[in-house]
Amino acid sequence: MNGPAWLLAAIGMWSVLDTNSKLLAAGFGAGQVLFLRHAVMLALFLAARAIRPGAGGTLASAYPWLQGLRAMAMLGSAAGFFLALRSLSLAEGYLVHFTAPFMLLGMAALFLRESLPGRAWAWTAVGFCGVAFAIVPSLGAGGAWQGYAWAFFGAFNYAVIMTINRRLRAESSLAGVILWPSLLGAAATLPFMLAEWRTPGPADAILLGLNGIVSAGAMVAMSLAFRHANAARLAPFEYAALIFAVGFDITIWGVVPAWQVLVGAAVVAAACLASERARREAALRMA
Questions:
Q1: Mean pLDDT, the chain, whole residue set
Q2: Which of 107, 133, 233, 244 would be a feasible disulfide site paired with 229, CB 3.0-4.6 Å?
Q3: Is the pTM of this model over 0.85?
Q4: Please, are residues 211 and 78 in contact by the beta-carbon 8 Å criterion?
Q5: pLDDT digits (tens, 9 = 90+) for 31-57
Q6: CA distance to 32, 137, 268, per residue, from 264 (Å)
């Protein structure tokens, strides 16, 4: 499989994960769902290492504090979208998620000292205007602003993850991608899980376990995608997530996205691709 194929596989699994989480959100707290997700991921990783010693690469890191920060950002992103999807449709949540590349531009300029052209910033403004176009009518009609706030929180944390990934390009082992987030995520959510524990029935237990399995699979597929192709080639395929979101919204919940959401998502996607192209062209001129 090549890079885009791995990325589409990862996006499909993330969409299944988000759909599953939205179903679980109706009866379980974020602490319990996220703890079990990370615990299952950790168990799968340890089992793989037991069966095949050294599977996934080295556990050592020259930047342990960055690994820890990335793990906490991954937890923040997961928690943000879990809480957002309690009141938002998948399509609405993904619309806000698409703003993460814009936040990444700002973080790259601030923390990685990347020089960005004016066109990239202009397209960023266009992208946020697309989000505003989509969500203002909903908010004006009494929509759940808390859901959008949590979605932006999740997108911000996702941008932090991508920023750290750029800094840790040399440390891309699957062991680091799965072990540290699952270990630290389980430890951080354990107190919340104990406080809000609800014994699941057989069907819910399967869904709770599936969260960890699908999450681990998505992480592996995403890592393999970026091993086979660069970010520029993969960027256009990321917006296939909206197709999955709309499909699950209609199939499971019977929710058809408002036309403003679809138009806003198209504007955001186009602006993201244009800003990334402007950034690449500027980098090539400076090289």
A1: 87
A2: 233
A3: yes
A4: no
A5: 999 999 999 999 998 898 888 887 777
A6: 33, 12, 6
